[in-house]
Structure to design on (255 residues):
């Protein structure tokens, strides 16, 4: 089992952009994921401005100095819009941002590489699979992630049946941050990448990776931590570093 990404979720504007870049310099697979909520992260909020400034900084930098793997986790009505084929106006600058990389050749890369759709139950029951598939194909340089939980099983099956290209995130806690206890075996592992979240922390990430390896076998996975990276309900960079370090130590030990 190889680790594709070590995701650190929900930093906000109390964190600095340099702290995000420093986390990503720890390993090329470290990913920063920001939560996008209509209202809570609308364009007039400080959180949105902080995210947009991070994206702009990466777009303007033609070197590899100020860069990180950046994901957005889309919630509520914005998620509903995307699942029915429309990117909300507020998210379009994030979807469309690119950066030029000057290396041996000049190439264009997306700033936001992965987009996680946290489907509300009402969306999972009534969305348009074909329109979402068309949107995924239009943004072919991005990886779209669907949460796999009881309320989205049917939606996942519909998307898989029509050949949509997406990845799956298993969060047995349902977004509450509770320890999973037992991890689910991959679903459609030969068609879709698989990720694991729920109660992941610096203290238990190694133990959880061992448990995940027993069900994932040789398939590549990623891990995502959020709630237990926080101190006093704020993203704690020191805890994120410990989480990353412990995941990397586990990997070195089990190679």
């Amino acid at each position: 089992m190889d680790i594709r990404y070590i995701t650190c979720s929900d930093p906000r504007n109390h964190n600095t952009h340099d702290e995000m870049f420093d986390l990503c310099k720890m390993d090329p697979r470290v990913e920063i994921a920001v939560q996008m909520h209509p209202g809570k992260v609308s364009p007039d909020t400080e959180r949105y401005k902080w995210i947009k400034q991070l994206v702009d900084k990466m777009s303007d930098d033609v070197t590899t100095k100020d860069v990180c793997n950046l994901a957005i986790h889309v919630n509520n009505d914005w998620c509903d819009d995307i699942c029915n084929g429309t990117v909300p106006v507020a998210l379009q600058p994030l979807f469309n941002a690119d950066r030029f990389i000057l290396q041996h050749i000049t190439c264009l890369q997306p700033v936001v590489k992965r987009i996680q759709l946290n489907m509300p139950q009402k969306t999972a029951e009534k969305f348009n699979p074909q329109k979402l598939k068309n949107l995924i194909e239009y943004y072919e340089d991005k990886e779209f992630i669907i949460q796999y939980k009881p309320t989205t099983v049917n939606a996942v099956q519909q998307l898989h049946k029509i050949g949509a290209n997406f990845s799956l995130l298993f969060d047995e806690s349902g977004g509450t941050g509770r320890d999973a206890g037992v991890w689910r075996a991959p679903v459609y592992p030969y068609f879709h990448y698989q990720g694991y979240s729920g109660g992941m922390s610096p203290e238990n990430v190694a133990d959880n990776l061992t448990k995940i390896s027993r069900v994932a076998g040789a398939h590549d996975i990623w891990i995502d931590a959020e709630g237990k990276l926080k101190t006093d309900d704020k993203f704690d960079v020191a805890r994120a570093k410990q989480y990353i370090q412990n995941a990397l130590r586990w990997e070195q030990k089990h190679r």
Q: What stands out?
A: Residues 3-254 form a domain with the TIM Barrel fold (CATH 3.20.20.70). The chain has a mean pLDDT of 92.
